[in-house]
Automatic annotation (TrEMBL), chain A:
The keyword Membrane applies. It comes from freshwater metagenome. This is Unannotated protein. The keyword Transmembrane helix applies. The chain crosses the membrane at residues 12-31. Keywords: Membrane, Transmembrane, Transmembrane helix.
TrEMBL record, chain B:
Residues 55-210 form the Penicillin-binding protein dimerisation domain. This is Unannotated protein. The keyword Membrane applies. It is found in: Membrane. InterPro entries: Beta-lactam/transpept, Beta-lactam/transpept-like, PBP_dimer, PBP_dimer_sf, PCN-bd_Tpept. The keyword Hydrolase does not apply. It comes from freshwater metagenome. GO terms for biological process: cell wall organization. The chain crosses the membrane at residues 12-31. GO terms for molecular function: penicillin binding. Keywords: Membrane, Transmembrane, Transmembrane helix.
C-alpha cells in the first residue's frame, strides 16, 4: 500500500520529467528545422550573390569594352566625328583668337583604330543614354573575390582531373 | 515455489552482474574512444574525409593616372565534359518533357563555344570522366551554357587577367602567362604588390567524394593583391599609339616610339610605341614587339644630343648663344673626316645658328675647348650612361664610355651624339632638365602601390639635381626655339598658338663594324617655351619611305604634342621668342 502511495506520489514528477523531455525534444526539433531552413536560405542567398557577381562581371566587361579607347574611336567615327590636331583658343579678356583655325579633315591615324584589342566585345549600341555622372567617373571593374568561387552557379566543377 | 525465489534472485543478480560488466566494458571502450584516444581518432578520420585546397588570391589592378583600369582580374571558365555519362538531355519545353539528342545538344554547345560540331562530337565519345572542350570561356558564355542544363557538362572557374584597353600601354603593363605567372613589364616588376597572399581552406567529402555542405573551414583567408598606379594618361597613350602606328605604316618604318614627361614633376605622361603587344593575346605579337623600347632600347641619338653639348659649353663659360664659329661642311680630325648632313660653303654661324642648321662641324667648333672630362661629367649629370630611376625591368643604361677611353675622333663625335647610345626616356629626361631651368627630376612611371583604403607604398622618391644653371637651360631652350621657328623640319612640329622648342636627330644605325643604310629619325623638344609643361620625343626607327630622314619624326611629334597640350588645357603662349641671330658677319 505504501509502495503504491509512493508510486502515486512520484506520478506528477515523472509526468513533469516526461513532459519536459518532450518539450525539450520538440523545441530542439523546431530549432533544428529553423536552423536547417536558415541554412537553405543562406545557401539560396549565396547562390543569388554568385549570380549577381557573375552578372556584375559580365556587365563590367561590357562597359569596359564599350569605354575602351578603340571602341570610342570607332563609335565617334561612325557618328562622323573627326579629331582636329590644330587647337584654337578664344581668349575671353580681349576676344582674341589664339592659333589658326583649320578644318579638321581627319587622317588615317585619327579615323581608324590601329591599336589592337582582343578583349573588345561586339555589343549592340545601348538604347538609353548614360547618365552624365556615371559617364564621367573612371571605370572600376568589380574585383573578383577569392572567397566566392562561382563554380556552383549552375554547373558543377569537373569531378575528376 | 520456495526454490524458485532464490534461484530467480540469483539469476537476476547474475544478469545484473553480466549487464554491469558489459556496460562497464562498453563504458571503458567508450571512454577510450571518446576521451582517451578521441583526438587521434578524430584526426585520422578527418584526414580521410578532409580535403585541403588553396584559395588563390585576387591579383591587384594596374591603373592609369586617372584611375582607369589597364589590367584587372576576372573569372574565366574551362568548359569540360564527362563522356562516360553523355546521353540525350531531357528538357521541359512548354510544360512538355522532351528529349534532345546528343547531336542537337552538341550543336548548341559548339555555337556557344565557337568551335565546329565536327570537332566537338568526337570529344563526347568515350569512357573518360573528363575532357576539356574549351578553356578561358567568359562569364556570359558560361552562363548561357548553364542555361542549357546539360548534366554531363562541368566547368572549372579560375582567375584570369583582362586588359580592357588591349594594346593601350601594353608595352608598360606587360602580361601574365596562362598559369597566371607574371612574365613581363609592370606585371612582373611589381609582382610583389599585385600578387596577394593565397588562402587555405579545407572541406569534408563524403564516401562518394562529394563535398559535404557547410563543412568548409577557412585555415587562412586569402589576401587580395594591391593596385599599381601608373603616371600615364591612357587616353593620350592611345592617341600617341594611333599616331605612331599610322607613321610606321606611312613611312614603312620598323617601329616608332614616343615619350612625354611632365616638366615640373618628372612624371611620364605617355610612353608609347608601335607596333606593340596586346597583353590579352601576347602570342599574336612578334617577340621583339612585346617589350618597352622607350626604356629598353638604346640607340645613337645623333643631333638631338647637340642640345646637351650646347648646354655644357654655355654652362662652363666656353660659349654663349652668340659664340661665333666659321664652319665648313666637312672637317678632317686625325684620319677621319666629319661631315655635315648637307654640303654648304664655309658659313659664319653663331651657336644658335649651328643648332638651327644642325651642323656637326659647327658643334665641334664651339665645343672643342670644353675638356672631355667636363663634357663626360655633364653627360652623366643629364642621366646618360645609367638606367633612369624608373628602373623598368630590362631597362638599358645605354653606352657612355669613360672619357679616358675616348680616342681622338670619339672625343669629337660624342659632341653630336655618336659613339654613345641612349634610350628614348634618357633623352626625354635630358630635355626635361633643360625645360625645368636646369633641374633634372627623376622620371616617374609608377606613382605607387595602393591598397583598398588608398594608402600608397613604394612611392618613388623625388630627386632634383641642378645639372646646369637656370640661365643656361633657358638659353638652350631659346636656341632650340629657333629650330622650330625657322627650320623647315622644326616648323612642321609647331603647334599653332604655342611657342615650342626642339631638335631634330638623324642617327645612323650601327650594322656590324660600320653603319647601315637606314636611320633612326627623332625629334625631342619642350612646350610651351614661355611656361614649359612637357618635354617629349618621338623616334622613328628605320623609315624607308622618306625624302629626308630628319622629317620622318616631325609629323608624329606635332600630332602628339598638340593632343597633349589640348587634353591638358594648356593655355596658349603669350609673348615672342627672344631675338637670337643665327649668323654673323
Amino acid at each position: 500500500m505504501k509502495r503504491f502511495e509512493r508510486t502515486r506520489a512520484r506520478g506528477p514528477l515523472v509526468m513533469i520529467v516526461v513532459m519536459g523531455f518532450l518539450a525539450i525534444s520538440i523545441l530542439h526539433l523546431l530549432l533544428t528545422i529553423a536552423t536547417s531552413q536558415s541554412v537553405y536560405e543562406l545557401s539560396d542567398l549565396k547562390q543569388e550573390k554568385r549570380e549577381l557577381d557573375t552578372t556584375s562581371q559580365i556587365l563590367a566587361e561590357e562597359v569596359a569594352s564599350l569605354s575602351s579607347q578603340q571602341n570610342l574611336l570607332i563609335t565617334a567615327t561612325k557618328l562622323g566625328m573627326v579629331a582636329n590636331s590644330n587647337p584654337v583658343f578664344l581668349r575671353l579678356d580681349d576676344h582674341k583668337v589664339l592659333g589658326k583655325p583649320k578644318p579638321a579633315l581627319g587622317s588615317s591615324s585619327q579615323s581608324h583604330n590601329l591599336v589592337a584589342n582582343s578583349a573588345m566585345i561586339k555589343i549592340a549600341p545601348p538604347k538609353k543614354k548614360a547618365s552624365p555622372a556615371s559617364a564621367s567617373e573612371p571605370l572600376k571593374l568589380p574585383v573578383a573575390s577569392a572567397s566566392e568561387v562561382p563554380i556552383a552557379s549552375g554547373i558543377p566543377a569537373s569531378p575528376t582531373r | 515455489m520456495n526454490h524458485a525465489g532464490p534461484v530467480s534472485a540469483r539469476r537476476i543478480r547474475l544478469l545484473v552482474t553480466i549487464s554491469v560488466i558489459l556496460v562497464a566494458v562498453f563504458a571503458i571502450r567508450l571512454i577510450d574512444f571518446q576521451i582517451v584516444r578521441a583526438e587521434s581518432i578524430n584526426e585520422v578520420s578527418y584526414e580521410k574525409r578532409a580535403v585541403a585546397r588553396t584559395v588563390p588570391a585576387v591579383r591587384g589592378d594596374i591603373l592609369d593616372a586617372n584611375g582607369n583600369v589597364l589590367a584587372t582580374t576576372v573569372y574565366r571558365y574551362d568548359i569540360n565534359a564527362a563522356p562516360a555519362i553523355v546521353k540525350p538531355v531531357e528538357r521541359q519545353i512548354d510544360g512538355i518533357s522532351q528529349v534532345v539528342s546528343v547531336e542537337s545538344v552538341a550543336s548548341e554547345l559548339a555555337r556557344l563555344l565557337d568551335i565546329k560540331v565536327a570537332k566537338l562530337l568526337p570529344k563526347l565519345i568515350g569512357t573518360s570522366h573528363y575532357v576539356n572542350l574549351k578553356k578561358r570561356v567568359d562569364a556570359e558564355t558560361h552562363r548561357q551554357i548553364v542555361e542549357l542544363g546539360i548534366p554531363w557538362i562541368f566547368a572549372d572557374a579560375h582567375h584570369d587577367r583582362l586588359y580592357p584597353n588591349g594594346a593601350v600601354a601594353g608595352n608598360l603593363t606587360g602580361f601574365v602567362g596562362s598559369d597566371g605567372a607574371a612574365l613581363a613589364g609592370i606585371e612582373r616588376q611589381f609582382n610583389a604588390c599585385l600578387a596577394g597572399v593565397d588562402g587555405k581552406e579545407t572541406f569534408e567529402k563524403g564516401v562518394d567524394g562529394i563535398k559535404i555542405p557547410s563543412s568548409t573551414v577557412v585555415i587562412q583567408e586569402a589576401r587580395a593583391g594591391r593596385n599599381v598606379v601608373l603616371t600615364i594618361d591612357s587616353d593620350l597613350q592611345y592617341q600617341a599609339q594611333q599616331v605612331l602606328a599610322s607613321e610606321v605604316k606611312k613611312l614603312d618604318a620598323d617601329w616608332a616610339a614616343a615619350v612625354v614627361i611632365e616638366v615640373k614633376t618628372g612624371k611620364i605622361v605617355l610612353a608609347a610605341e608601335a607596333p606593340t603587344v596586346d597583353p590579352n593575346n601576347p602570342g599574336k605579337s612578334k617577340p621583339e614587339d612585346r617589350g618597352a623600347r622607350v626604356f629598353q632600347f638604346a640607340y645613337e641619338p645623333g643631333s638631338t644630343f647637340k642640345a646637351v653639348t650646347a648646354a655644357t659649353a654655355i654652362d662652363t663659360g666656353y660659349a654663349t648663344v652668340n659664340t661665333q664659329v666659321r664652319a665648313p661642311s666637312s672637317l678632317k680630325v686625325f684620319d677621319h673626316v666629319i661631315n655635315d648632313s648637307y654640303s654648304h660653303p664655309p658659313t659664319n654661324w653663331t651657336l644658335t645658328g649651328v643648332l638651327r642648321f644642325s651642323s656637326n662641324v659647327g658643334t665641334i667648333k664651339f665645343a672643342e675647348k670644353v675638356p672631355a672630362k667636363v663634357r663626360y661629367e655633364y653627360m652623366q649629370g643629364f642621366g646618360f650612361g645609367k638606367p633612369t630611376e624608373v628602373g623598368f625591368e630590362g631597362e638599358t643604361e645605354g653606352v657612355l664610355n669613360n672619357y679616358k677611353d675616348w680616342d681622338g675622333v670619339t672625343n669629337f663625335t660624342t659632341m653630336f651624339g655618336q659613339a654613345l647610345s641612349v634610350s628614348p626616356v634618357q633623352m626625354a629626361s635630358a630635355y626635361q632638365t633643360l625645360a625645368n631651368e636646369g633641374v633634372r627630376l627623376n622620371p616617374v612611371l609608377v606613382a605607387g602601390c595602393e591598397d583598398e583604403e588608398g594608402n600608397r607604398t613604394a612611392v618613388p622618391k623625388s630627386t632634383a639635381t641642378q645639372v646646369v644653371s637656370a640661365a643656361t637651360a633657358n638659353d638652350v631652350m631659346h636656341v632650340l626655339e629657333k629650330v622650330v621657328e625657322q627650320g623647315s623640319i622644326g616648323r612642321s612640329t609647331a603647334v599653332s598658338g604655342y611657342r615650342s622648342a626642339g631638335k631634330t636627330g638623324t642617327a645612323e644605325i650601327k650594322e656590324g663594324s660600320g653603319y647601315g643604310q637606314y636611320y633612326a629619325a627623332s625629334f625631342f623638344g619642350m612646350a610651351p617655351v614661355d611656361n614649359p609643361r612637357y618635354a617629349m620625343g618621338v623616334m622613328i626607327y628605320k623609315p624607308k619611305r622618306v625624302w629626308t630622314n630628319s622629317m620622318a619624326s616631325a609629323a608624329g611629334y606635332q600630332k602628339i604634342l598638340s593632343q597633349v597640350l589640348l587634353a591638358n588645357r594648356v593655355p596658349p603662349s603669350t609673348g615672342k621668342s627672344p631675338d637670337l641671330p643665327t649668323e654673323w658677319k
